[in-house]
Design goal:
The structure is a single chain. This protein is mainly alpha-helical. The protein has 6 helices and 2 strands; from the N terminus they run αααββααα. α3 crosses α4.
């Protein structure tokens, strides 16, 4: 690691249709085995499905779902004096957004349904309405951080 300077943050490119970086971040997390065109197809079908179901702007729903699923705090295992403690740490908005995207995709993969596009659209709509598996995961993380608040001084 370099001691001279802090590494500069890379800004992701926007996707070709919506010109949105969040959409591109989501596509990059959907990709499996290098099949990016399939990931774009899945996401664009999910966006179309959300537009038909809600009648609202799907990018607004997507932004809302990610912001509601993003955690403010997380717990990290720290070994202190022979015992491991779960130490609560505040996280930044970019890391919270990355966690939210990961949780939303994991939750949509666990859902039962026909295609990944439909499962993703249902999960995003649920997250925007403040329920769903990803929202439950965020609440569970916040509860864990609250329960281990006594170890916050080990930061």
């Amino acid at each position: 690691m370099s001691r001279k300077s802090i590494a500069e943050k890379k800004i992701g490119k926007p996707d070709p249709i919506y010109r949105n970086r969040l959409v591109n971040m989501l596509v990059n997390r959907i990709v499996k085995n290098g099949k990016k065109s399939l990931a774009y197809r899945i996401l664009y079908r999910a966006v179309g499905s959300m537009r038909r179901k809600t009648g609202k702007n799907p990018l607004f729903i997507l932004r809302q779902a990610v912001s509601k699923a993003a955690p403010n705090v997380t717990v990290k295992a720290r070994r202190i004096g022979g015992s491991t403690h779960q130490v609560p740490l505040e996280i930044g908005s970019t890391q919270g957004k990355a966690l939210a995207i990961r949780w939303l995709l994991g939750a949509s993969r666990k859902r039962s349904g026909r295609s990944m596009a439909l499962r993703l659209s249902y999960e995003l709509i649920d997250a925007a309405k403040d329920n769903g598996i990803a929202i439950r995961k965020r609440e569970e993380t916040h509860r864990m951080a609250e329960a281990n608040r006594a170890f916050a001084h080990f930061r």
